[in-house]
């Protein structure tokens, strides 16, 4: 960073700190930005944190405890671009943190006169930023949420702040009575026994990730259920679905019920935020690398994720941000095709998942 950039950032530090954080792509990507947002608030609690997000993720952005203001990205187009530029100028931001850089956003931050602008040093969009961080994310050497935290720390350092210890999960903390309210509502809707483990399974992918087939999920669930039953644990299976995936969830629920499992589909939630809050009721959430999996991770629910072996989509890169003890991940073995999900050993996965469920159940009983 040049000396003039340093002066600009230090001047921004001395003003009423207003930080714009940009993560304007998919739901899972945005959920993995929450640790970085928590990092900013932990170090500078008085800072006003705004996020620039698409309308789709805005409802969850409004629920994020680390966000003070939500700005909806109006998208491309000359009029939309000018409207967003005018908004950024009016807000008089001290700094901008772009977690995923594009030329359009970089240009807007520069034209808006935001004095301290931080982004990954990638592609030519980095030319619009006066503080660039070399990360080489394409190597997938770290979790995405950790890359985001490192960018947040780079911004704070550029502003002259002493870093505080990194926040720990949950990155979406809910009060116990909020979680209990979700469990009571779902128990009433589906006639579930609250004393049994509730295993949520999301078979859809939202078109964003390679996933297990419905048949594989049915085989996995049956294997988990069999192991739990053998140890005296009767689980409830709750099938969740995103928009357009309801039929998949219903078909899978019918298959599991026919096989003797206690399975039901979570009733549709009209709003994304209501669906997200319902996941807080899960004792375990099973899914591919999708937005719902990362919502569950932010809530610090136990997760079992299924990932392709593709370098840009590995289980390390797209690791959930819950506690390590709550996190399981499965991928095709070495030598299999990068998207050959059929190569995953479902019996081994079922044994590992059922062990986690038993351990969590034992901890609940002990407490």
Automatic annotation (TrEMBL):
Gene Ontology biological process: lipopolysaccharide core region biosynthetic process
Organism expressing this protein natively: Billgrantia kenyensis
InterPro entries, per database record: Glyco_trans_9, LPS_LOS_Heptosyltrfase
Protein name: Glycosyltransferase family 9 protein
Organism lineage string: Bacteria, Pseudomonadati, Pseudomonadota, Gammaproteobacteria, Oceanospirillales
One protein family per Pfam: Glyco_transf_9
A GO term, aspect molecular function: ADP-heptose-lipopolysaccharide heptosyltransferase activity
Entry GO terms, CC: cytosol
The entry's keywords: Glycosyltransferase, Transferase
Gene3D superfamilies: Glycogen Phosphorylase B (3.40.50.2000)
């Amino acid at each position: 960073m040049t000396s003039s950039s340093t002066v600009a950032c230090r001047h921004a530090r001395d003003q009423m700190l207003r930080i714009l954080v940009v993560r304007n792509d998919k739901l899972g990507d945005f959920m993995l930005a929450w640790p970085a947002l928590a990092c900013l608030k932990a170090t500078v609690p008085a800072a006003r944190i705004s996020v620039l997000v698409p309308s789709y993720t805005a409802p969850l952005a409004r629920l994020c405890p680390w966000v003070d203001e939500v700005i909806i990205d109006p998208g491309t187009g000359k009029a939309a671009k000018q409207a967003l530029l005018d908004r950024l100028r009016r807000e008089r931001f001290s700094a901008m943190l772009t977690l995923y850089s594009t030329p359009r956003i970089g240009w807007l931050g520069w034209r808006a006169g935001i004095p301290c602008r931080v982004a990954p040093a990638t592609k030519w969009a980095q030319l619009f930023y006066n503080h660039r961080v070399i990360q080489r994310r394409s190597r997938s050497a770290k979790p995405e949420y950790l890359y985001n935290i490192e960018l947040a720390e780079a911004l704070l350092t550029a502003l002259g702040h002493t870093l505080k210890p990194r926040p720990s999960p949950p990155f979406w903390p809910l009060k116990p009575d909020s979680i209990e309210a979700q469990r009571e509502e779902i128990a009433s809707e589906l006639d579930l026994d609250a004393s049994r483990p509730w295993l949520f399974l999301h078979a859809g992918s939202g078109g964003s990730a390679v996933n297990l087939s419905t048949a594989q999920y049915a085989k996995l669930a049956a294997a988990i259920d069999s192991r739990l039953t053998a140890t005296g644990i009767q689980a409830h299976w709750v099938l969740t679905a995103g928009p357009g995936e309801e039929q998949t969830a219903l078909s899978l629920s019918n298959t599991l019920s026919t096989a003797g499992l206690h399975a039901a589909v979570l009733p549709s939630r009209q709003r994304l935020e209501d669906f997200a809050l319902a996941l807080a009721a899960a004792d375990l959430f099973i899914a591919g690398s999708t937005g719902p999996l990362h919502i569950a991770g932010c809530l610090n629910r136990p997760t079992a994720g299924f990932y392709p072996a593709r370098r840009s989509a590995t289980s390390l890169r797209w690791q959930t941000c819950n506690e390590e003890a709550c996190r399981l991940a499965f991928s095709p073995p070495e030598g299999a095709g990068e998207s050959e999900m059929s190569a995953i050993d479902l019996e081994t996965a079922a044994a590992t998942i059922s062990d986690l469920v038993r351990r969590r159940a034992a901890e609940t009983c002990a407490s």
